[in-house]
Structure formats: C-alpha cells, structure tokens
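hey m, so remember when u said the tokens were messed up on ur end? i reran from scratch. heres the input so u can diff it against urs
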Amino acid sequence: MKISRLPDRLDRMPMLKILVFFAAGIALADRYELPLWFLAGAFVVTGVLALSLRSSAATAAMILTAGFAAAQFRAPRATVPRGVHTVYEVTVEGFPADRGRYAVADASVAAWRDPADGRWHASDARIRLYADSLAGLHAGERIRCRGAVRPFRGGAESYRRLMARRGYAGTLWIAERTLLERLPGRHAGLHRRAVERLSRLPMSAGAAAVVEAMAAGERRGVTPELRTAYSRSGLSHLLAVSGLHTGIVFALVNLALWWLPLFRRGHLLKNLLAAVAVWLFVAAAGFPPSAVRAAAMCTVLQAALASASEYVGLNALAAAGFGMLVWNPSWLGDISFQLSFVAVAAILAWGVPLCRRCRTRWKGVNVVVDAYLIGFVATVATAPLVSHTFGVVPLAGLAVNPLAIALAGVVVFGGALWMLAPVGFLAPAFGFVTGSAAEGISALARLTASLPGGAADYTLGGWPTAAVYAVFALATLAAWSGEPKKNVSLRNGKPIRMRKSLLLFFAFAACWLFFSEGGADASALHESPVAEFSVDAGCADQWRLERIGNSDLNRLRTLRETETCPVVRLVQREGPASAGRAALLREGVPCGKCPGALRSAFTFPFRDSFAGPSVADFYVFRLCRLII
C-alpha cells in the first residue's frame, strides 16, 4: 500500500472532491443558519485566496461555502398558512390512489384566499390531498375547496422531515360538502399520458400496479400488503423508477440500435437517439431524483462513447450528483437520492472490480456471477441506510435479486416500448409478456418475505450509520492506495501478456507442424543444382511472379510490397524431385533506377529440418503471415 498513489487516483475524479465539500456545506446548512451577506463575503474571500495562493484549503472552503449558501438560499418555504380555515384553489397532480374509504393524491396549491380581507394570494406549495369516497378525485383536475392545511402528524419523524425536504407544506382533507367548484383541468403531461397508455394493457390489477410502478413511476395501485412484501424481500427498489430501470433502458436501446453505425454518421445518430430515449423514459416517470441522476450518468457515458474519450464512472456519478444538488440542495436529505447514490457508488468502487476478478471463460457463468456480485455489493452498501430509515434489514434478497432483475428488464423495456408505440392489435401480446413478468416478481417477493429469517427487524442509529459509511469510505481509499499488480490488464478474463505468449507458442508449433514434413538430408541444400534466369521483362515478369507466388500460401510469397529496386537475377536452388514447395527469403539489394522489379531472392526446399538464420527468417515470416 502506498499513500502516494491516492492523490493520483483522486486527480482523475475532480468532481468527486468537489461533491464532498459541496455536500458538507449543505449538511451544515441543515443544522445552522448564517446571514446571506456573510456567506457571500466568505465565498469571495476564499475564492480570491484560492486564485492568488493556489491553495487547496481555500478552494475547499470556497466550495463548502457555496454549498452552505445554496442550501440556505434554496430552502423550501411554506407559501400557504397552516391551520387557517379558508378557501384554496388546488390542482391534482398524478393519479389518485384509492384507499377504500378515501383517496389520496399529490396536489399543488395555486392560490389561497386571505380570510381577513378576502384577497387571493398566489402559491406554489405542494400538499397531500385527502378526499372521502363521495368527493372523488381525478388526475389533473382543478378544484376550489374549503379547508385548512395542517402539518404532517402520522408516521415517524424521519418521514415528516423527508416530506418537508420534498417541498410539502402539509395535508388537506376535503369532503363533498367542502368542495365548492370543479374547474377545467390543465393539459395532460407526459407522465399522465404514459400511465394512461399502460392502463390499456390487458392484465390483472396486481400486475398492472407493478408495471405502472416500474415503467412509469406511478404507485397508485400498490397495496400496503404488496409494498410490505417487496420491502421485506429486499426488492422494494424495483417499485420505484431508479438507476436500475434507467440503465436497463440505456443498455437495451443501445443494443437495439447496433445497426446504425453501419451508415455514414450513424454512430452520432445512435448516441443522440439513445440519450433522447433515456430522457424520455425519465420524463414519463415524472423525473424522480434517482432516475435523473442515472440519466445524467448515461448521457455522460454516451458522450464518452461518441467522442472515444475516457469515462470514469465515479467522476460521472459525482458530476451528476453535483448538478442535482445545485438545482435542488434539499435532495441531499431525500432517501431515494441517498440510496441510489450509495448503491451506484458501491457498484463502481467495489462491484466492477470484483466482477473483473471473478471473470471466467464461460460467458453464461459470468452473467450469473456478475448479477450476484452487483446485487450483493448494492445490498451490503445500502443495508445501514435501509436499517436506519425503515428499521428492517433484508437478508434473503441476495439470493433472488438476479432473477428479479432479469424479470424487471422484461417489464421495464416492454412497458417503455408500449408507452412509445401503443399499437392496438399488439396490446394482448404486450399485456401477456409484461404482466407475466410482473406477476413473477410479485410471487418471488411474497415467497422471499415469507421465509423464516428472510429479514431482520433492526433500526440502526444515526451516528452508528455515519460510522459504518466512514469505514466503507476508508476501506475504499485503502484499496485505491494499493500497489497495482503487474500485467493485470484483462481481456475476456485472461491477462493480455499470457494470451500473447500462448498465441506465439501455438503459432510456432503450428508453423513447425504444418510446414515440416521431415526427414531429408540437410546436405541436399548444398548439393542441389543451380538454375539461373534473369527478369528482363521488368514489370510484366514481376506481376506474373507475384500472382504465382501469392496464389497459394504454401508457394512463393513476397515478404512485403514491391519496392523500387533494379532488375536482378533470381537464383533458385532446386532440391530433390519430391520437394515441390519453396520459401522466399529476403536479401538486401540496393535500389537502382528501374522501378517495379523484384528484389533478389533465394529459394530452397524446406522439407529439411536444418538450423541457421535462413530457417529463423523463414519461420518468422510464416508466423507473421499466420497471425495476420
């Protein structure tokens, strides 16, 4: 282990260093509050010091101050009064979820009326809207109702903090008697249209709920029982559109467009279409944070493929995370962002190297081993965070993750393809394939959750969770500081130098076995008669001889392209009558004035196993021809 190697490794990931200090500033802003003028002054001072002194400490302080200021400036603020009974104009977002006696949906408050003076005030606050079964809610509709926005009361404290970070001001309950007016709804967005297209597929209610959740991010039909089964089986990440779903779309779209590079500028069109397809999928899912992060990483990877530049996965992940936190610093406390970022970081830092070390010569085995290793690394990395947030540690999910991910690929790609092109007569086929895969995942989740010891109920505290991830980070840095092994460049699981050595060995053996028919006396070379002839016809004889020599690999063959050389004699030493084949060896001849003639050469019967530089030259030439 050499600590001096660590800075070189980190220099390849500048965005990772920037993200660490920026996220630290956001975390500090969650606990402390400073005046904005002080933060602005600190940012300017540290920036001047960083530029003038080229100080790394000043640069880190500047980035930390920027994160602190961004979090404090973009902190969500309630624009509606809480606990005040008045009139609200509300727009229903997404699709309401039926809970039996009531329905629940996400909504945004467009305006509210001040009960003191009757004036209307604009608002952009988000709320959780609850309505009894008589009132009824519809996706996208606008309603005017009377009620009061109240803070979240049920659930754990972590849930209330999460909803506050996501910009929710509270909850609003309405009934039929408090519903004043229904207004024309706004134009349906891409997410709504995607869910409506998926609802046309003929499948059971349970399968439709899973397909909508995995392909469009709509979990209105996921029942509490199904959600619990997925959570305890370790498959809950499949019900939310995340990096896994985006990566499936990215891989399958690139696979489906493999033929485009065959045309002129086709590789550029392929990269553009793949990036557009990924972002359309994320838009259809409603732009969840984890999918946005994955789409940004896929876009960076696609650009690297298009420009043939180096792609550093962790640097791209850090760049995507930095951009998202600049846009919305409150995402740092979002559990979906945390789980997605930690899982992908662990896969890039530990999963990919483990897959390379466990590579075998059988591709089918490699696929299974890679799936288990990736699932194992992601599960272990997110286990402390899952235990801290949800109070459960899924254990049996490691065994079923590869099969569940394979079925999820069918659901995601089938659903995305149907959302893109909903051809009516293909609905039964799409419904059968995607519905069967969704039912298989649900059955697998229920079976795994019912196993004894499949999950452990344990809640990890805040500081122990931070300590565990600190150990993970130190272990990663220690692994990066390790001494790299010699000749560990892998290709298909084998060291390149070893493969070259084996190739050379077998090539020499093939040359020897194929071209030596053994047995003749070596003195025949010196006792053979000599026949001389000259090439007076120049170019004509040259091309005739080359055609004859190149017509068969076992006959005369020139070593390299014809050079400008003088007309010379070709001397041929004939061996016994049974020696029909000969080899052409090079002999240096000074170039002259006559272009297009062959250089001088000696031919001899190669049946004899004699030693000498001529034989070495012959086998080197044959080896080159065989390899090329």
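this time it looks ok to me. The mean pLDDT is 75. if urs says something different then somethings off w ur setup not the seq
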